[in-house]
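ZP: hey, is the iron/sulfur cluster complex queued? I don't see it on the tracker
AM: it wasn't, my bad. submitting now with these inputs:
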Amino acid sequence: MNIPENICKKCGFCCMEKLQTEKAILINKKRACKFLKKIDNNTYICSVYDKRLTEAPWCMSAVYAYDAHALPMACPYVEILGKDGYVGPRLPRDEEEEKLFKNTSIFHFMEDIKE
Ligand code: SF4
Ligand code: SF4
């Protein structure tokens, strides 16, 4: 399947830390791949996009990220690859869910997002 690159909304969610809980896969907006750069509250870009495959061996293609349930339901790639049966990650809904992220970071390439 030919997947276009220019449909990305730059939400950055696919590059942020995730946590699988009993209820859902949660997205941590405070921690992400060290190459994710915050532009504003809704816009994040990859600072090594053109050389990400050599700089970031953990970086996932859209299809791989879809298979890993790393793309939120609103991601345009999910529209293309299929919403039926797909469960995407979501943001925490309350403080209790936010707290679950404490001490969960296990990936060396994740860093706190700079404000
Ligand atoms: S989740 Fe989708 S729209 Fe958001 S940055 Fe990743 S690929 Fe782009
Ligand atoms: S290297 Fe990959 S995972 Fe990291 S910010 Fe860039 S696109 Fe996201």
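AM: back. The longest helix spans residues 62-67.
ZP: great, adding it to the tracker
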